[in-house]
Task: structure prediction
Amino acid sequence: MSPEVVNTLPHVNASLNAIATLLLFSGYVLIRQRREVAHRRVMLSCFGVSVLFLITYLIYHAYAGSKRFPDYPAQGIRITYFVILFSHIVLAALVPFMAVVTIVLGLRNRRQAHRRWAKWTFPIWMYVSITGVLVYLMLYQLYPPRKEAAKIGVGQAERSITRVVDTVSQIPGQPITAIK
Result:
């Protein structure tokens, strides 16, 4: 698979997660309105979108591996990211199984069991869809990797000179005069 296609997959995956979120919400609204046929169609569409997401997610990670969250954001942001990511991963592992059980019960018209499962499946699936988009935003949009080594700007050059001066000033027996 070409690198160009692989590099677009995170954006595709975030879009699929966003679509799943909208479909989940729509399905919830439809069932609250007692529009069962529309609810069934929307929820099956949501499941289809989620399956497509899973396929593209696995393809991306097979070709690109994992992407590391950068070191430069503040510690609080990093902790928030990892808490969101950890909860997302754990719950995302449950969603396919819970969704299949909930859908099968609904299609078999086992309403009571379907409702019991849906009370757990819906909020977990919604959380996973929303946090999937949040992880994408944090990793690819808000805190993308910096390419400091590629170009050295004026500010970076000044910091580099300061580091050299600081290092040399720590050498015993070396007098350092101020550079102006």
